[in-house]
Amino acid sequence: MDILLSRTEQTTVLPISSSVMTSQDEAETEAVCEREWRFIINTLAAGALCAVGLVGNGASYRVLGRDTEILPVPRFLLRSLALADNAFLLVWFANFSLWDLVAYVGLDRMSAAARASWMYVHLAAYPLGFIGQTATIWLTVLVAASRCLAVCCPAKAGGYCTLEVTRLGQYIRT
To answer: Do 145 and 166 contact (CB within 8 A), yes or no?
Structure first.
């Protein structure tokens, strides 16, 4: 009981005027909160997914390269898909995960020249992310179309699912 009384005696009541935050304090708190959430989502969560994706795609590329039993068309398409997906993941990681890590650590308060350099790099790399994403999507469509032909129309698949036609389709896609 004495401990309870001593704790209540030590508490102080702040005046109402000092507990009200100013709009500048609110804006600063909101910026800090946004920086922390961006760090958690873009750097930790998405960065970990990028790392897992890079390792998985690299393993797929190596395994498909060594497998001699698989037909050349699916091997070519799946290896191309792994490369396109890795390109997308690398650009995304550089554009978002690394920058939010820099912002969280506080290095975003760097010199004006360094910030301008980063903005030019971001300006050039940002479209590369969309190119990698589009390549990944269309390669997935090519894989699905190739497998659909091989399963649904096996008699016609021999003429359409050749390595030359597949390479032509990939070239047209790019």
So the answer is: no
* The two structure tokens encoding residue 85: 């997906």
Residues 6+ apart with CB under 8 A from 39: 100, 101, 103, 104
pTM: 0.73
Distance separating alpha carbons of residues 169 and 166, to the nearest angstrom: 5
121-142 residue pLDDT tens: 888 888 999 999 999 999 999 8
Q: How many CA atoms lie within 13 A of 9 on its CB side?
A: 6
Task: Choose which CATH entry (1.20.1070.10, 3.30.1330.130, 1.50.10.20, 1.10.443.10) describes domain 25-173.
Answer: 1.20.1070.10
- Amino acid at the residue 143: V
Counting every residue written for the chain, the total comes to 174
Q: 104, 33 in Cβ contact below 8 A? A: no
Q: Where are the domains of the chain?
A: 25-173
The number of C-alpha atoms within 13 Å of 49 and in the hemisphere containing its C-beta is: 12
* Structure-block tokens of residue 94: 């550089």
Whether 139 contacts 84, CB under 8 Å: yes
